[in-house]
Design a protein that fits this description.
This protein has helices at about 20-40, 40-50, 70-75, 80-90, 145-155, 175-190, 200-210, 215-225, 240-255, 275-285, 295-310, 315-325, 330-345, 355-360, 375-385, 390-395, 400-415, 420-425, 435-445, 450-465, and strands at about 1-5, 5-10, 50-55, 60-65, 95-100, 165-170, 195-200, 230, 260-265, 285-290. The radius of gyration is 26 Å and the shape is flat. It folds into four domains: about 1-115, DnaA, N-terminal domain (GMP Synthetase, Chain A, domain 3, 2-Layer Sandwich), CATH 3.30.300; about 145-290, Rossmann fold; about 295-365, Orthogonal Bundle (Helicase, Ruva Protein, domain 3), CATH 1.10.8; about 375-465, Chromosomal Replication Initiator Protein Dnaa, Chain: A, CATH 1.10.1750.10. The protein is about 50% helix and about 10% strand. It has 20 helices and ten strands. By secondary structure, the protein is α/β, with parallel strands linked by helices. The longest helix is centred in the last third of the chain and has 18 residues, at about 400-415.
């Protein structure tokens, strides 16, 4: 059936093009969406923002909307403008086709003041946020002050301040705590807010499942419908080209729609290996905030706050001793306090003194050192696991097995030391830094496909941190 120039069809009748020109439609939609929004009223914008590109054929551009009500609203009020804008951008004469992703239809139309139509949106799974991760429980210091300010601004005014917000730093410094605090604070302020909190690795798994189950339209509709998009460990997108393509288009849609995007990573955007340049530049569009290892003053503050929460009465000299010994990150401080809490439950009649603290943590804090290793340590560990000498691994031989082991060593050198490519190449007897880049990208790609290789890399890491 057609109404005016707009075709309607149920989702089960929709057949996607075999050559899949969907990315072209998504790019065009990202371009024309701001123009369409500017010419629409608030009620129409609420429905337009829920449109999800589904397919592009020779004669039609297909979009899904979450419900008959939203589809009919756009069809009757905005279809001609949208169709004209898309044809102008694509240089084609297409028919705009709208499909409803479910049969739900609200009985009452929204007033102009309504910003969303919750009844017609995809069902949002409850975000897996830990309620303990709040701004109140996060200890602020010089090493994280900018990140905290950016996080609070993003939670207070999603989409308007610092979008996207990109938090980066080494493991254990509080990136995930802040990410979840943003989600918790947003939901506290607005219980109807639609929040997705997900690791980049889980995003990849969701994407793969959606392809296998032929549910890409539902996958996109879910991510397009959010108020707040929280992505943890975005560096794991490296080397996943198809996933990056999908991530790129969802990111663009949300950014153009003024939805808040927050990401965490172990390094700044421009140091993300095997991540496309266009994603890196977009990650830098807003605020990039570094979270460094806590200094002594911050470690003391963290210990005092967390020990109070555990009911531990630690003398100042014990707090100072722990802060000086546990220099790795906030996570090592938490581990030390957890050990002390267990010790206290066993020795309830003994008040904590410096001596008792040292006794309780004997053998533990020697392991609470920064997670840093040298290229020489990596070379030694890899050679020991492969029964090779460093000379065999660094000489110019091209034997396939040794070449692969050398690539693994270069991969670990980059991942664990963040040394420049040129320095890594020289350490392994190579003059061209692109050799190290190629080795990293090759191993990063293969480990996602080869469980044995991934296990081998994990074993080498365990060996390194046991040194």
């Amino acid at each position: 059936m057609k109404v005016g120039n707009v075709a309607t069809r149920s989702p089960d009748q929709l057949i996607l093009d075999k050559d899949d020109r969907l990315p072209l439609l998504i790019r065009a939609w990202n371009v024309v969406l701001p123009l369409i929004k500017n010419g629409a009223n608030k009620s129409s914008v609420a429905h337009i923002l829920q449109m999800t590109p589904v397919a592009l054929t020779d004669d039609r551009a297909v979009f899904a909307l979450p419900g008959q009500f939203s589809r009919n609203w756009v069809m009757q009020r905005e279809s001609k403008r949208i169709e004209a804008a898309l044809n102008n951008e694509l240089g084609q004469n297409l028919t705009l086709e709208l499909v409803a992703s479910d049969n739900e239809q609200p009985e009452i139309e929204p007033t102009v003041a309504v910003a969303r139509e919750p009844a017609s949106q995809p069902k949002m799974p409850r975000p897996k946020l830990n309620s303990k991760f709040s701004f109140a429980q996060f200890v602020e210091g010089a090493s994280n002050r900018l990140a905290v300010a950016g996080a609070k601004a993003a939670a207070a005014n999603p989409g308007a301040a610092h979008n996207p917000l990109f938090l980066y730093g080494p493991p254990g410094v509080g990136k995930t705590h802040l990410l979840q605090a943003i989600g918790n604070e947003t939901l506290k302020r607005d219980k109807s807010a639609r929040v997705i909190y997900i690791s980049a690795q889980d995003f990849l798994l969701q994407y793969v499942d959606a392809i296998k189950l032929n549910k890409m339209d539902a996958f996109r509709a879910l991510h397009h419908s959010v108020t707040l998009w929280l992505i943890d460990d975005v560096q794991t997108l490296g080397g996943r080209d198809r996933t990056q393509e999908e991530f790129f288009h969802i990111y663009n849609f949300l950014y153009q729609s003024d939805r808040q995007i927050v990401m965490t990573s172990d390094r700044p955007p421009m140091e993300l290996d095997a991540v496309s340049g266009r994603l890196k530049t977009r990650f830098e569009q807003g605020l990039c905030a570094d979270i460094a290892q806590p200094d002594l003053e911050l470690r003391i503050a963290i210990l005092k706050k967390k020990s109070e929460g555990l009911g531990l009465a630690l003398p100042d000299e014990a707090v100072l001793w722990i802060a000086e010994k546990a220099q790795a990150n906030a996570r090592s401080l938490q581990g030390a306090l957890t050990r002390l809490a267990t010790f206290a439950s066993i020795h309830q009649d003994s008040p904590f003194t410096l001596e008792l603290t040292i006794d309780a943590l004997r053998g533990y804090l020697t392991d609470c050192r920064p997670e840093r290793v040298s290229i020489d340590q990596i070379l030694k560990a890899v050679c020991e696991t492969a029964n090779l000498t460093p000379e065999q691994l660094t000489k110019s031989g091209r034997k396939a097995e040794i070449a692969r082991i050398r690539q693994i060593a270069m991969f670990l050198a980059r991942e664990l030391t963040h040394e420049p490519w040129a320095r890594i190449a020289v350490a392994f007897g190579r003059s061209d830094h692109t050799t190290a880049i190629h080795a990293y990208e090759t191993v990063n790609r293969l480990r996602a496909q080869d469980a044995d290789l991934d296990a081998r890399i994990a074993a080498i890491k365990r060996k390194l941190y046991a040194l």
